[in-house]
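Archive record:
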Amino acid sequence: MDMHHYRFAILSALTLTSAVVSQARADEVVFDCDVVSTTSTVTQTIDLAAPFAGTLIGNYDAVANPAGTRTLPGVFGGTGNNPIPYTASFVLAGDIVSNPVGTLVLGVDSEGLQIRVANLSVDLLGGEVGALGATVNINYQTFRTVSPSSLYPGGVTIPVPVGNADVTQLTAVQTGKSVFGALVPQKDGSYQFTVTVPVNYTLVASALGQPVGDGAPTPGVLPLTGRLVEGTNTVTLALAISDSSSTNEPVVADPFVNVPLVLPTVIPTGGTANLLLSGDVTSIALSRALTADLDVAGTRQAVPGDVNGDGLVNAADLSLLLSGWGTTGPGDLTGDGVVGAADLSILLSNWR
């Protein structure tokens, strides 16, 4: 069989195959997508409470800090520098507003009206560090201090601002395989859709020089509602996200020792006592609410075997490959300088 008949036989057989395949599977176009940081925003509302208990003591040291604060139990109590029992709760609360970055793979089947989301990974902080107001709500037994001289009546919970806590990581990474949703056509040619993506949320924060939580991933969902506009080789998404969750988990961690705490004086007011806080965190309760508006832009993935660049591998690509057989034509998929059997194998293995 000469080359002309060889090409014709393959072209005829695969043209028929193409018709069968097109009926048997969805015509999905796959896009690699990025979150556009400059126009995307996330507001993360975090309310974290970590109860703990232990002792507080003045930062007095006879050698290193003889002018430091001393703590004495009771109203009139004692000499020296004494540990005072307390119970407390560390509270981390506020809003973090950021410009996120991230990626995802998007499959669009405009014929079957289906969307597919895979490999979603979003850095909700956009590489920045978020700050939240930190407070220690502390309840202690009655004690007094020397340097400064003050009385602290017990049995009353006092909120003590301790500056900001730093949130250094806040991410959502898709778990499992692809998730699918329906595309709803709109009059302007766009599509509306809703997809719920299972994710692991990871929050890493520190306060008072100590880590807050263990930074372990927490399972959750990321509900995506939005608008999709598909071009020839591009896609744009406008996504709205609204999600919330709450957890209460026990903590197994080493106790903290001698964390500096500046405590306002009570009687009289107007001064500050410099104390050292030691204790043990027993659990962490975390409530989280997330709202976001994300702009996403994608470009069509290159398809091996797609000679003419239309995103499909079919008879049109085969025709181009065969017409350049034995030359350096556009069907040279391997890049070895000649169109041959290796290129044909790539094309046929990706036929769709």
Remarks:
- The first helix runs from residue 3 to 24.
- The helical segments are 3-24, 315-323, 341-349.
- Residues 26-301 form one domain.
